[in-house]
Amino acid sequence: MTIRIGKKGISDQQQHLLERCRRDSTPHNLLDAFMTLINDREIRDGEEALHPSWFDVWEKRRARISQFGPDELVEQLTTFFNQARERDPEVTELDPQNQRICFLLGAGASKPEPSGIPTVKELLPDLLARARRLDREEVTRLAEFCESTGIDNIEDLLTAAQISEFCGRNPTIMRLIEFLLFREDHSDVGFRRSRRASVDVSSVAFLQDTLQVLFGLLSSRMLPAEPNEGHIAIANYARDRGDTRIVTTNYDCCMDLALSSLSVPYRYPLDFANSQHVPPSSDNPINLVKLHGSLNWFYCETCQEVHWIDIQKTVEDYNDDRALYPVIGVCRTCGGQRRGLLVPPLAMKFDVAPALNPLIEESASSFGDVDLIVVVGFSFADADLYISRMVSKAMQANPNTKMLIFDPMIGVVQKVREKFSVRIPDFDSSSRILSVCGDCSKTLPRFLSGAYRQSEMTGSNGDAAAEYASVETGA
């Protein structure tokens, strides 16, 4: 099956089917129209282009089709659109071997197996399900509350916990927040305040204990994770190209382990108090910038020292049950508590881990000195606004820098294009922000190996790359 994406030469029949799906969302109409589309021989053979608007219609209607359509048809439609939408045509013009690349990795980069780490949106239900098995009353109550109220975003939960802990320690702030939120009914708020002017100390203790349990579960979820083919492809590319930059918001160590497995020299651009134990690297190691911390970094809030541990040995000992993972440890320097240097999934990430601030400057430098920013599984969410600003500033300063987004969701690239078009004057988002949709553990290795450049492009005007993408599959 060869599918072309384009707007030229669209038949009246295909245009009619497209309009039907836009106007009429009844299950019978949608099922009939989509079945007709995917069984059209001329479209499947590439004789007629598939209009790009189909992808938006599919994203909008897929939930309804999945609800009423037979499983076999839903699977056929999903496969059809996944194969058809794999990449923007301009991707074939990018030569990874002749460009300076900075990789920006988000949670989606570690989702494919064998890494298998849930994304931010999937993380809370996963952690709460594991939390129930601990048989801790307070954690079970939290899980029941989240499930009964439909709360499934860990950023919402941890942000609320952070604000609650802060307000619990600062009753005046809590009273001001109540007044600002409920000022139209301030007299009633005043009555409630007079009855309870401060938060029970046990509530703060509950928050701290619950957060610690969640961080323990989070660590146990990430420690056994292994690099997937996407991580390995980046490590292979970095081995051949010493000037590669890697920036990641993930604190799992899949990327670290992938580099080590191929003997690629790398360093963390951070000052460690126990630097004498950090293995010596080559003269030109790759900088692995972990913006939100790492499972093998620990920080003492008392003396503010940052320590490093050998992640390979830690993972091996943990998996073989020879040693525990130290969620909290004793600082040898001052006797205080060392905790994992991790920035939790919060809506407000600033001022959470001051020790990581030097990495922001390192990231900005990495984005500003490349030809291509390859984004893998990172959606530029509002909670990561500071990263969006760093990248947009770099792309504004260098009009030749492009971005290539690898993500399974086709809607991500359009949202990113809209954001950057607002931030950068006269920004041509369609030519400077490109996308490859699908499983990054499959698509990223293909791009870095040059497979997309080698793929055959066809077109009546001889310039198919400017008109459509051709995707060949084994189906």
UniProtKB/TrEMBL annotation:
One of its GO terms (molecular function) is NAD+ binding. This is NAD-dependent deacetylase. It comes from the Bacteria. It comes from Bythopirellula goksoeyrii. Pfam families: SIR2_2. InterPro entries: DHS-like_NAD/FAD-binding_dom, NAD-dep_sirtuin_deacylases. Gene3D superfamilies: TPP-binding domain.
